[in-house]
Amino acid sequence: MSPDNKQTELHKALDEAEQKLSQAQQHQRREAEFAQQANQRFDNNLTAFRKYYPNIAQFIETYQTREDFCLHVTTSGHGNFFPKDSSVPLYGDDPLEQTREQLKRYTEKANFGQADYLARKSWEAGDDRLHLQYMQRLSQVLHDVYQKDYKKIVALPEHYPTALIFGIGLGYHIPELLENHSFDYMFICEPDPELFFASLFCIEWDKVIEKIDDSDGCLFINIGLDYQAFFEDVFRLAGEIGAFSTSMSFCYQHYPSEKINQLIKTFFENYYQLHQGFGFYNDAITGLAHCVHNIEQGAQCFFAQPRKANELHDVPVFVVGNGPSLDESLDYLRDNQHKAIILAAGTAYQSLLKAGITPDFHVLVERPRITYDIQKTIEPEQGYHDTNLLTVDVMYPDVLGLYKWAGMALKGPESATAFLAMKSLLKYGRQVSELPACGPFVSNTAFSYACLLGFRDIYLFGVDNGYSLSGKTHSSLSIYNDDKHKSSFKVLDGAKIRFDGNLQHDVMATPLMAMSKASFERLIMQLGNHIKIYNVGEGAKLEGAMAVEEQSLVPLSVPLDKSALVEGIKSNYFDTLEFDDIEQSMGFDELASLCDYLIEIGQRPYATRDEAQAILKAQQRVVFAYKASKYRHLFHLIKGTLLYFHCPMVSLLYYFEDEAATLQEFQRCLDLWHQFLADIKDDFPVNWKAKCTWTKPQYQQYKEAK
Known about the structure:
Blueprint (H helix, E strand, L loop, with lengths): L2 H50 L1 H9 L9 E2 L5 E2 L14 H14 L2 E4 L15 H18 L11 E8 L6 H8 L1 E9 L2 H7 L5 H10 L3 E6 L3 H15 L6 E6 L4 H12 L11 H16 L3 E3 L13 E5 L5 H11 L4 E5 L2 H7 L6 E3 L5 H9 L10 E5 L4 H4 L4 E5 L5 H14 L13 H11 L4 E5 L5 E2 L28 E3 L7 E3 L1 H17 L4 E5 L9 E3 L13 H12 E2 L12 H15 L6 H17 L6 H22 L5 H29 L12 H6 L1
Parallel strand pairs: 4-5, 4-7, 5-6, 8-13, 9-10, 9-14, 10-11, 11-12, 12-13, 14-18, 18-19
Antiparallel strand pairs: 1-2, 3-7, 8-20, 15-17, 16-17
């Protein structure tokens, strides 16, 4: 090599070394600068969480990082991170620019989670109840709107009702999203707590929290929850603040992950649960009326704290539903009926009697007049006069008189429940007990009773929460298969949800069955390990319950003095209540004032969809404020129908691009809502004690005979 070439190579090597040294020095400066800023961000964030989210602050202060926990500084000066067991960092060389590009894609063609209110089928005609009449009118308006050729919103508007953020990562997308968009409700979930902890050094959570707070929004942060727990948390929050909080959601997945994918999948598989079971005005006022009648006729009220030490801890209890799997358990039930307390849920009562099995309690829950008519239609030859009934406060009053004895608990969340709980607390210093997770089906009610009565060995028979893949829907002994009655009893249709089987075979469930299954699992999760739940036979798998084959059941060994136990339950847990000021406590003037104020709020001027939505939010907050007042029964009286109106109205506001046309259609719905409020203002003082009259033509004989 010539001297000139050697000189050139030397200069090149020196330049490269100088460049590497410069890069190393720049990187050191970036790291030092990042470390200083990151530590300050962490301190500021911790202070904000202590103020607004003390539980998260406690998590931060006690969190133990892994030994190799490290934030890597990129060439852009931002933090990067290798998640546990990953050889790939979350971001490239410029996390912020990468995040902005992702945001641009996700907001220009947004992914929306929307309850399908506009395209829903019309409500059943021929029902003269006030709520149902208005729902028919509202659904017609919405259907008319849906048929018009309006262009749907594709890009995320500046303001949108709700954001569902799946995955925090290091959080760069959150302040960036809030730079150009705002939300009334923001739900954020990060299943990996380490990533959230790392984000405390990378973004200014304190400013995110303050920005949302200043804009009158609500921020919910879920850290370390799996997909099931996250949905349960959203379900609980939606119940507390209203289902309108999730009726229109902008959905954002920040980074790919199996946990995040499962989180999203499970959430939207269960999305329908957030928008069902609202209750409504006529249900609420009818339940309130029935509760008053039941109290006045001396119904026995349930108190979960027994008068003396619980005698049921070591007593087995059979909770019996009427599902197809019941048939395989009949021999076991027959052989062991004297060794356990038996709660027969709904029509399972008749099936058990046909099989020679005598239930100790019949459990009923539905409030309409038709419940009484059905019980009379399918009344066994010996009648109900030797049978004990367990029911709820909203039960049709005449039903209680059919039985030897009747005890009732609070159903909740109900207007009747809120009213009686407050009245019993004020006069007697203790509340009648509310059954947790006692709907939507009577089997849920029976299970809830078994739990609160203190049983620790609970067997579920025929509680299938789904139809057999063979097409079988009920026990072969059920009235649904009885030649005399089956034409009058129609099974639920729409069984399109497939659940893992408890044993070998999967089942198909309707949305209500799916809600029942979820209700069982919520209560099982709350019970703790000291209570054993045996899910016997085929049917849907229940998380937290032990799956047991019928032929594997061990015969119970100890015969019981069942008569003494049953009488002990009745005397130990139930009592009568007396009130002499029920009508004065109803709050007729208060409801009138509430309705007038809601209408007044609704007459405020608006020129944009956001201003229209602000009116709805103002109405919602007024109504939900009653939840903690002495008139909390008025909250439950109006809440359900408010949700039935407001959820589709919120959806309508953010469904179509044409804002002017949207507001015209919205006004039609708002006018209907205000007409409804005016009608219930007049209806409540007149019908607060009116029993339900709703039945079906095939049961008219009992209505007329009565």
